[in-house]
Structure formats: structure tokens, C-alpha cells
Design a protein that fits this description.
The chain is an alpha+beta fold. Helices cover 47% and strands 20% of the residues. The protein has helices at 30-43, 85-97, 108-116, 123-132, 134-146, 151-161, 169-178, 209-213, 225-238, 243-253, 256-265, 272-276, 286-295, 327-337, 342-366; strands spanning 4-11, 15-22, 47-53, 56-62, 69-75, 148-150, 182-185, 194-197, 200-206, 299-303, 309-313, 316-322.
């Protein structure tokens, strides 16, 4: 587990300068900071490096010379720095978006907590966090329209579209490749590497089917069963999937305390006493968790004739990778319009075929 987070900047006059740290009591020597700075300077590129300095195990992320910030995650000796790379890239984005009036200062504790659990996030949470990142979302949306784009063109396009400034394209692409959403490849005759969309993300609210089959068996008094079914039906009659709604729910999913509560609510309809037991699993503020779930319209509260309250999942959320069959039509259109070179489209068909074969093989091995 990480033991601390340090935000540092290089100042030509004074050298390394700590802008923020958490917890406050952690200490990092000037010599150590200088070593981190020198290691990044050697590569000269944005991104993460890891190094051991005495008893310190450090994962450090450099935002690049344009902004010049260093985010240092201090780890225990047996921690794997590479496990935090995606989380550090995400943290750097949030900090850079909150530089004005030093708004990032109040975010440092929550960013540290978020980083601490990053390696333990499951596939659902990681996929949700991927889509939450504005740059990654912009790339995915662009590739949904075209399927394939050159890396150089993508960089120019992002700089033009992303007005907040800094874009660590290499770091972003590495994360998307890890998630198996894109593939990067070279094609003979093309001056730049190409970025192919290989899997898309589907996400939407879904009814809590298992709970609705027999709410009484899941903990809801029998006299409240029809009320629960009615409320759920009413909600989904008016529900229309949207990006804004998806992003609202993602904010819930990636909060460790809320997600732990959601895991329980997916299996049972519970009382306040049941929720209080989650404190053993790190849910320290049950009221705040319930507030977030209520405001995002994910739970409904029912009351029996003795004024006992029951918390039930009103809507669950589904997020998963899907094979983008629709891209075959896009490739066909691009061939007819001659908007992409033939060798690029042929390579894309090969990439999609290999992706599909691998997906089928993975599904078969699971069976």
C-alpha cells in the first residue's frame, strides 16, 4: 500500500519545490527529490519512472516540459510501482485541470486514497475509470466514427480540441491498449503509426433482475414487494441512456466506499444495521454513501408499518467491452469514399479478425 503522495515542481531558482504532500508528516529529502528530477530529465519525456532511493520505493509521474509537474507516489518496498501507472496518469490529469487558484490542494487527500486502491480495482471499475477520462473518451468517440486514425493526426486533433492544455498521448494510448480497446500498428507506406479501435465500451443502467425475481427472499418484507417492483418499472419506463447519466454513475462506481456498498446491494435488500456492518470493509461514512446512491437514482428506500427502513437497488449499471461489429460498415464506407488508403483498411480488417478470433477463444476457454 502507498504511504504518501508528493506533488513537486522544478524551479530554476530554488530547484525542486514541494507544492503539496499527503499525509503532512511524510518527509522526502531534497537529495531524493533531485534524484527523481534527474531520472526524469534523463529520459526527457512525460510518463512514469520507478526508482529505489534508500528505503523509499517511488513511482513518479512527469507531466512533461510544457507543465513541468512531478507526482511522486511513495510505496512500501514490496509494492509494484507499475501497478499504479494508470492511476498516476489519471491523477496528473485531475491535478492539471485544477491548477487555477491552486484548487488541486484540497484534492490531494482524495487523490491519494483513490491511488491507493487503484491496483485492487476490478475490471468493471477500471473500465468505468477509463471512460471517465475525458481524453480517452474523446479518442474512443473519434474512433467510433472512423475506426482508425494515425497517431500524428490524433495528436494534432487533440491539441486543437482539448482546450485544457496538456495531453500525454503516449500514456493515454498505453492505458487503452492495456484495456484492449485499441491496437497500435505500423502499416507499410504510412508515415505514422495507426491507432485501431478493437473493442468498444457498452454501458447503461439495467434493472436489478435477480432482486426483482423474489424481493422477499432477498430481505424485503412481503407487503413491500409490489411497491418495489412498481418503482423499478416506473423508473425504467422513463429512462433514456445518455453520456451524462453514464458519467454520473461512473463517479459512484469508482468511489471505493460506494462500490463496496453497491456490491452488497446487488445481492440483498438491506437495513441500516446491515449497512453499518460495512465499516469493517472500509465504508466509514454510510450517510454520504447513501446520499450519493440516492442522488444518482440507484437506490430506493422503503418503510414498513413499524417504520423500519429497507434499502433496495432501483437500478444497477452494466459496463463491458463489446466487439464493434458496426465498424465493418464504416470500413466499407471508407473504401467506397476512398477516405482511407486501401492498405490501411486491409490491415484494419486483419486486426478486427484477430481480435474476434481471440475473443471467441477466450470465451470458449471460460466455458
Amino acid at each position: 500500500m502507498p504511504v504518501g503522495l508528493v506533488l513537486m515542481k522544478w524551479d530554476e531558482r530554488v530547484g525542486t519545490e514541494i507544492l503539496a504532500k499527503y499525509p503532512e508528516e511524510i518527509t522526502v529529502t531534497d537529495k531524493t527529490l533531485m534524484q527523481v528530477y534527474s531520472t526524469h530529465e534523463y529520459s526527457g519525456e512525460s510518463g512514469m519512472i520507478s526508482l529505489m532511493v534508500g528505503s523509499l520505493n517511488i513511482a513518479s509521474y512527469y507531466t512533461g516540459p510544457e507543465k513541468g509537474y512531478y507526482i511522486l507516489l511513495l510505496l512500501n518496498l514490496d509494492d509494484d510501482p507499475d501497478a499504479y501507472e494508470g492511476g498516476l496518469a489519471d491523477t496528473s490529469r485531475i491535478i492539471l485541470q485544477n491548477l487555477e487558484d491552486e484548487a488541486y490542494l484540497q484534492l490531494i487527500p482524495s487523490l491519494f486514497r483513490r491511488l491507493s486502491v487503484y491496483p485492487t480495482l476490478n475490471a468493471e471499475q477500471r473500465l468505468a475509470m477509463t471512460y471517465q477520462d475525458e481524453i480517452k473518451r474523446m479518442i474512443i468517440n473519434r474512433l467510433r466514427e472512423e475506426g482508425v486514425v494515425s497517431k500524428s493526426e490524433l495528436m494534432v486533433w487533440l491539441k486543437d480540441r482539448y482546450k485544457q492544455g496538456f495531453v500525454d498521448l503516449e500514456g493515454v494510448l498505453i492505458e487503452l491498449i492495456k484495456r484492449e480497446i485499441i491496437k497500435e500498428a505500423s502499416v507499410k507506406g504510412m508515415p505514422s503509426e495507426l491507432i485501431f479501435l478493437t473493442n468498444d465500451i457498452i454501458m447503461m443502467r439495467i434493472p436489478p433482475v435477480q432482486l426483482l425475481k423474489d424481493p422477499a427472499d432477498r430481505g424485503l418484507p412481503s407487503q413491500l414487494v409490489e411497491d418495489y417492483r412498481t418503482e423499478t418499472k416506473k423508473f425504467f419506463q422513463n429512462y433514456r441512456p445518455s453520456e451524462n447519466d453514464n458519467l454520473t454513475i461512473i463517479d459512484v462506481l469508482i468511489n471505493p466506499q460506494v462500490y463496496e456498498t453497491l456490491r452488497l446491494l446487488r445481492t440483498a435488500i438491506v437495513t441500516r444495521n446491515d449497512l453499518e456492518k460495512l465499516k469493517k470493509k472500509g465504508v466509514d461514512d454510510v450517510d454520504e454513501v447513501l446520499k450519493m446512491l440516492w442522488e444518482s437514482q440507484m437506490i430506493q428506500v422503503f418503510q414498513d408499518d413499524r417504520n423500519n427502513e429497507y434499502y433496495a437497488l432501483l437500478s444497477d449499471f452494466y459496463v463491458e467491452l463489446i466487439f464493434p461489429k458496426y465498424l465493418i460498415n464504416i470500413i466499407k464506407e471508407e473504401y467506397e469514399k476512398k477516405s482511407k488508403a486501401d492498405q490501411v483498411l486491409i490491415e484494419y480488417l486483419n486486426v478486427l479478425e484477430n481480435t474476434y478470433i481471440n475473443l471467441k477463444a477466450a470465451a470458449k476457454s471460460k466455458e
